[in-house]
TrEMBL record:
One Pfam family it belongs to: Maf
Chief place where the protein resides: cytoplasm
Name recorded for this polypeptide: Nucleoside triphosphate pyrophosphatase
Gene name, Swiss-Prot/TrEMBL: maf
Catalytic center residues: 70
Annotated organism of origin: Jannaschia aquimarina
Length: 193
């Protein structure tokens, strides 16, 4: 049994679909405060994702293996957070339209209160130019589905139409570098292979 320190249904579904028995224990941390502090210190996007994943994995005080994960979007030297309003989602999408950005997904596994494994995957994504009308209708129609997604899109759904290129691991775009996680669990004997 793996404890997932995340409330993300997508992450839980990915793990379960891969045959991983998982118990959900969402970790509550002030992600914005942590990000802000790290950015003031000059941390790179990859380090921010890794730190947040580790903090989440350390939060549940349970025995066994605990998986924490986090994802950050880096564009033009800025890190974007999940949009708080439809207006903010539209602004994020307009900023990304016609441009390239990086999506970094980090995972950390903790055992008995200490990190024993970590991995971060980076995906380069190129969004197609989008008209104002399309942005308005996209956000209006899909707000409930994209409100929990950094960048305001879901590649696994209608968001696929927004892109011309995605270079990297598909699972990482969804929020978890799944294949490296599975590899570690197989190596540890948690999963059969």
């Amino acid at each position: 049994m793996l404890v997932l320190a995340s409330g993300s249904q997508v992450r839980a579904d990915m793990l379960r679909a891969a045959g991983v028995k998982v118990e959900i224990r969402p970790a509550r941390i002030d992600e914005d405060a942590v990000k802000e502090s790290l950015l003031v210190e000059g941390a790179r996007a990859r380090d921010v994702a890794d730190t947040l994943a580790e903090m989440k994995a350390l939060k549940p005080q349970v025995g066994g293996l605990v998986l924490g994960a986090d994802q950050v979007l880096s564009h033009g030297g800025k890190l974007l957070s999940k949009p708080a309003t439809p207006h903010e989602a539209r602004e994020q999408l307009a900023m990304l339209a016609g441009r390239q950005h990086r999506l970094i997904s980090a995972a950390v596994i903790v055992e008995d209160g200490r990190p024993v494994w970590r991995h971060a995957s980076e995906v380069r994504m190129v969004m197609r130019p989008l008209s104002d009308g399309f942005l308005d209708s996209y956000v209006s129609e899909y707000w409930e589905g994209i409100r929990h997604c950094v960048g305001g899109y879901r590649l696994e759904a209608e968001g696929a139409r927004l892109f011309t290129a995605v270079e990297g691991d598909y699972f990482s775009v969804l929020g978890l570098p799944l294949l490296p996680v599975i590899d570690y669990l197989v190596t540890r004997g948690v999963l059969d292979a």
